[in-house]
């Protein structure tokens, strides 16, 4: 693999010498041109150029729709087969019969899996930004199940309404019967599906780098260009960030499957570099995706689950609330809303929510809801900006190609 990578590197360097009007261009001037184009695109954001950004965003959507329509038109057999299968599923769903109990069960499981897989994909791919769905959705869900398990002394929450709403079962549980493993088992499906989504979200960098390596082209992608610059200046890199990225690249390249597994099994903000490295060095797809899936959906998720469950176990939460109350001056005033919120949750778990909603619950719920709204709005804005910049890149590429043909 290393020899193949060396030959491809030589081919890539040779292709950098593009001919312009019969002369070879200076690579430094080409890099300066790319840098100016990148800076120009980065200024196309809603808070700086709202009209241009919205215009480019709309045009990019039209371009994507046109491309997908063209692809589907050339795959008419696949489209017709998919439509027939969809028609059969719709008929099965709406026709009355004894099969409806199985249909409803499959629908419920499918929606549950799709929900958490979708959140995992949003957290991982995010069009260059990422929506931190673990902090906003999965983490709070695991924390809620943990608090409820210790309060109810059981994880046999009735279904429905769980997971939409957690209510203690009518049968009283035995004090101290809740173990770490029982809570892990209760949230395993949601956590693993979220991990599967994050593994799927790591595929675009891999496919992008692999396609670029096979075609010999140089995609105008910032992460890929940074990766190639890192390879060129690997021996002279001194700063911590460059050395950390180089360490990830070396681990993945030399160790292979187990190196990818190690990088995917821990919270690693540099894992995108692992995907680019695997694509660049033509690592087989199932080697990359298999190691990523095992690392993210099984090993990493169990580490994160155990951390959240231990953090929100009953005695830890009580100690945290007591610690807040011990803060000089403002401690008691900060402690009160948390105590009221926990008491409100206990009442809900024991079917006592009709007694009224405490003020502390409204305050904490309001803060969390606004945080979720802000994060989702920022994610939507980042998608608009990213797609507008993608259309601007199309314009720049067209202008550059026109200049070369003159």
UniProtKB/TrEMBL annotation:
Protein name in UniProt: Vacuole membrane protein 1
Q: Which UniProt keywords apply?
A: Membrane, Transmembrane, Transmembrane helix
Q: Does the keyword Transmembrane apply?
A: yes
Membrane-spanning residues:
46-65, 77-95, 115-138, 273-294, 306-327, 363-384
State the organism of origin.
Answer: Rousettus aegyptiacus (Egyptian fruit bat)
Entry annotated with the keyword Transmembrane helix: yes
């Amino acid at each position: 693999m290393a020899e193949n990578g060396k030959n491809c590197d030589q081919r890539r360097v040779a292709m950098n010498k593009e001919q312009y009007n019969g002369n070879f261009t200076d690579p430094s001037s080409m890099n300066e041109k790319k840098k100016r184009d990148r800076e120009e695109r980065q200024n196309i954001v809603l808070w700086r150029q709202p009209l241009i950004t919205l215009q480019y965003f709309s045009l990019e959507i039209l371009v994507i729709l046109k491309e997908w329509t063209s692809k589907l038109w050339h795959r008419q057999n696949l489209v017709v087969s998919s439509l027939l299968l969809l028609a059969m599923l719709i008929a099965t769903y709406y026709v009355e019969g004894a099969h409806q109990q199985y249909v409803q069960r499959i629908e419920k499981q499918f929606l549950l899996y799709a929900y958490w897989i979708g959140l995992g994909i949003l957290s991982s791919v995010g069009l260059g930004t990422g929506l931190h769905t673990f902090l906003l959705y999965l983490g709070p869900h695991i924390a809620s199940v943990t608090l409820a398990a210790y309060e109810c002394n059981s994880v046999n929450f009735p279904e429905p309404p769980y997971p939409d709403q957690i209510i203690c079962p009518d049968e009283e549980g035995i004090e101290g019967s809740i173990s770490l493993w029982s809570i892990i088992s209760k949230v395993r499906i949601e956590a693993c599906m979220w991990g599967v989504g994050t593994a799927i979200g790591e595929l675009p960098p891999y496919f992008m780098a692999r396609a670029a390596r096979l075609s010999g082209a140089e995609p105008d992608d910032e992460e890929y260009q940074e990766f190639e610059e890192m390879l060129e200046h690997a021996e002279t890199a001194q700063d911590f960030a460059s050395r950390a990225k180089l360490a990830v690249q070396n681990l993945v390249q030399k160790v292979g499957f187990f190196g990818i597994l190690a990088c995917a099994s821990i919270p690693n903000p540099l894992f995108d570099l692992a995907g680019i490295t695997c694509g660049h060095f033509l690592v087989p797809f199932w080697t990359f995706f298999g190691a990523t899936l095992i690392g993210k959906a099984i090993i990493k998720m169990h580490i994160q689950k155990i951390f959240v469950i231990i953090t929100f176990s009953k005695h830890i939460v009580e100690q945290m609330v007591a610690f807040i109350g011990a803060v000089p001056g403002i401690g008691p005033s900060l402690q009160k809303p948390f105590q009221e919120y926990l008491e409100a949750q206990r009442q809900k778990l024991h079917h006592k929510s009709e007694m009224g909603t405490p003020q502390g619950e409204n305050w904490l719920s309001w803060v969390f809801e606004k945080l979720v709204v802000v994060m989702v709005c920022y994610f939507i804005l980042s998608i608009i900006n990213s797609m507008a910049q993608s259309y601007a890149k199309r314009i720049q590429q067209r202008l550059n190609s026109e200049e070369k043909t003159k």
